[in-house]
Amino acid sequence: MDIEILVKLTARAWTLNILASLDAGTPGRQAPLLAATGAGRTAFAQSLSHLFDLNLLERNPGHGHPLRPEFRLTPEGVRIAAIAGRIVKAGARDEDAPLLRRAWTVPVLAACQRPRFFGEIRAQLAPVTDRALSQSLKQLQAHHWLQRHTDTDRHPPRPSYLAANEGLIIARAAG
């Protein structure tokens, strides 16, 4: 998947889970999707609205009550939902779910499929701030999804980052 689309997609916490649930066959109504994702109502509504804005989701015409609409994936949404399903399955452990829902986790992992310096990652993920990228790198390292290697032969020493373990599996699923 294109890194720009991945950045836009992961801007809301539950978008990957909603798409993965729809890809897995969950009915496109709010109650089954809420139950399948485990999201809170407000965050769910924001993520659903975000998917509409990205033209990945639409109301299913002629189905559902006006107060209980039914949703379906657009043709582009079907393609992206399959990728979201692979990403969610790759980070399937319950203790990994909160980190996987963070905005920059998947884009950073996708950018680090080969060794990258901080500046290279920041350039590839254009809207990320230095602070957000730094925090994401630290969290991913602490979770062992990212390895940091410092090249001490250079002056000054420069650390590089590489996706590892489950992080590499997630990065490849997003790729």
TrEMBL record:
Alphabetized Gene3D superfamilies for the sequence: Winged helix-like DNA-binding domain superfamily/Winged helix DNA-binding domain (1.10.10.10)
Write out the entry's keywords from A to Z.
DNA-binding, Transcription, Transcription regulation
Q: Which InterPro entries match?
A: HTH_HxlR, WH-like_DNA-bd_sf, WH_DNA-bd_sf
The reply on keyword Transcription is: yes
Top-level taxon in the UniProt lineage? Bacteria
Q: A Pfam family matched by this chain, by name?
A: HxlR
Where's the HTH hxlR-type domain? 103-167
Coiled coil (UniProt feature)? none
Keyword Transcription among record annotations: yes
SUPFAM superfamilies per the UniProt record, alphabetical: Winged helix' DNA-binding domain
| PANTHER family to which the protein is assigned, alphabetical | TRANSCRIPTIONAL REGULATOR, MARR FAMILY, TRANSCRIPTIONAL REGULATORY PROTEIN
- According to UniProt, the name of this protein is Winged helix-turn-helix transcriptional regulator
What is the species of this protein?
A: Psychromarinibacter halotolerans
